[in-house]
Amino acid sequence: MKINQISPQEAKFTEVLETIAVKPKILYFNGKLPENVVKTVGIVGARKCTPYGEKVAYEAAFELAKAGVVIVSGLAYGVDSVASRAALDAGGVTVAVLGTPIDEIYPREHIRLAEEIVQNGGAIISEYGPGEKLDYKLSFLYRNRLIAGLSQMVLITEAAERSGTLNTAMHTLDQGKELFVAPGDITRITSVGCNRLIAQGARVYTRPSDILEELYPGGLPGEECSSNVPVFSGSPTEKAIAGKISEGVLGGEKIIEELGISAAEFAQSITMLEIKGVVRPLGMNNWMLR
User: Fold this and answer.
1) What are phi and psi of 188, to 5 degrees?
2) Residue ranges of the domains in the chain?
């Protein structure tokens, strides 16, 4: 595969890396970098993922890629490669960021996957040139800042307590990006890291629309939207509250008055709407749709 070399500011897709704390000076890549303004989501997780983590990652990447989102990942075993495969299966574009020199695909078993990524309009990227000698314990961690940097938001589907994936989560938050995390069984080792991130305030991921609604608040391109209220599953009260907020009634007390509900019912419903990512607080019991 042909190796290309650019500085981040030379391409629209990579110029965002000029804003991260430790900027790469040079990027090497095989394939084609997305040219237009695109939506990007990083999907990463445990290398030794369970069938649950694999299913969540595949469904997310497939549906997002089908909607035109570029999937960014790391080509590693487990969740990373599942995400890239799903994007390809959906006919979408995926970009893989290496922690190795550009001429050293790792793991070797994913050489064919890397070739498919390039053949289908995506790219393999590394900040390390051909034959460069590296400390791989550090280079893979450094790579994670680039995955976060190239992504508008990041989804973690499975991560153990000491998973390297948590390093990507740290970079995502440090860069001011949205971090979505799939909750997992509290008895499963590979869910400890995810559940802990959620406890610390990460956005809960339950389905692809959680992310699509954030990326396309007015609806997917080409879709007509008859309402400003996001489509979500919830109680009649939750939907009524969301409807009032969409009409511009942002104050909790005013919503309670107009709907004729109790303060306790409002508090319970607005909490569920916040958990589902439908609304966000403005302070002083005022709310708006996300």
Assistant:
1) -95, 125
2) 4-215, 236-289
Encode 99-117 in three state secondary structure: CCCCCCCCCHHHHHHHHHH
pTM of the predicted structure, to 2 decimals: 0.75
260-266 contacts at long range (C-beta below 8 A, 24 or more positions apart): 261/237, 265/237, 266/237, 266/241
Which range, of 49-58, 93-102, 273-282, averages the lowest pLDDT? 273-282
Q: Looking at residues 12-32, what average pLDDT do you find?
A: 93
d(CA 3, CA 100): 14
CATH number of the domain at 236-289, out of 1.10.287, 3.90.1720, 2.40.30, 1.10.10? 1.10.10
Residue 227: pLDDT over 70: no
CATH architecture type of domain 4-215: 3-Layer(aba) Sandwich (3.40)
* pLDDT beyond 80 at 245: yes
175, 147 contact by CB (below 8 A): no
Whether 279 shows a pLDDT value over 90: the answer reads no
Residues 6 or more apart from 235 whose CB is under 8 A from it?
269, 272
The pLDDT confidence band at residue 236, using thresholds 50, 70 and 90, is confident
pLDDT band at 21 (very low <50, low <70, confident <90, very high): confident
Burial 6-42 (b: 16+ CB within 10 A, else e): eebeebebbebbeebeeebeebbbbbebbeeeebbbb
pLDDT of residue 122: 96
